[in-house]
C-alpha cells in the first residue's frame, strides 16, 4: 500500500498528523481511518465475488488484474507460440548498429562489413561508399535541395 512512500515522507506525514489532529485525538483518527480502509477493502472483495458469481463457473479463475491492458498483452504474448520467430528476429536485429552503418555511409566514412550480404539478387549496395578518386573539387551546390 505504501510502497512508493519513502521513510522521510512517512516521517513528514506523521509529524503533520500530530500537528493537525494533536496527540490526544491522533489514536482515534488512526482507528477511524483504518476502519474505513478495511470497509473499502471488504466492499471491493464482495463486489469482485459478486461479479465472479454472475459471470458463471467458466470465469471462476478470472483475475481482475487481467483487465489491465499491459498485463493482458503480456500474458497473450507469453502464451502465443507463433511469435517465437518474431522474438528470434527481434533478438538478432540491432537497430543502433544499423543506424550507425547508415550514418557512416551517408557521411562517407568507412564502416565495418555488414553481417548481411552486401548484394541482394545481384543489385549493388547503394549505401556502401563508392571508391571514387578524390579530385579535390567540391560537388555542385543545389539550392533547391537545401
TrEMBL record:
The cross-references to Pfam families, in alphabetical order and at most eight, read: TatA_B_E
The transmembrane residues are 6-22
Major location, coarse class? Answer: membrane
What are the boundaries of the region Disordered? 104-146
| Tree of life domain | Bacteria
What keywords are annotated for this sequence in UniProt?
Answer: Cell membrane, Membrane, Protein transport, Translocation, Transmembrane, Transmembrane helix, Transport
Does the keyword Transmembrane helix feature in the UniProt annotation?
yes
User: Any idea where this protein resides?
Assistant: Cell membrane; Membrane
For this chain, the family text in UniProt reads:
Belongs to the TatB family.
| Self-association and partners | The Tat system comprises two distinct complexes: a TatABC complex, containing multiple copies of TatA, TatB and TatC subunits, and a separate TatA complex, containing only TatA subunits. Substrates initially bind to the TatABC complex, which probably triggers association of the separate TatA complex to form the active translocon.
Could you tell me what this protein does?
Part of the twin-arginine translocation (Tat) system that transports large folded proteins containing a characteristic twin-arginine motif in their signal peptide across membranes. Together with TatC, TatB is part of a receptor directly interacting with Tat signal peptides. TatB may form an oligomeric binding site that transiently accommodates folded Tat precursor proteins before their translocation.
HAMAP family on file: TatB
Query: What name is this protein filed under?
Result: Sec-independent protein translocase protein TatB
What is the organism field in this record? Streptomyces tanashiensis
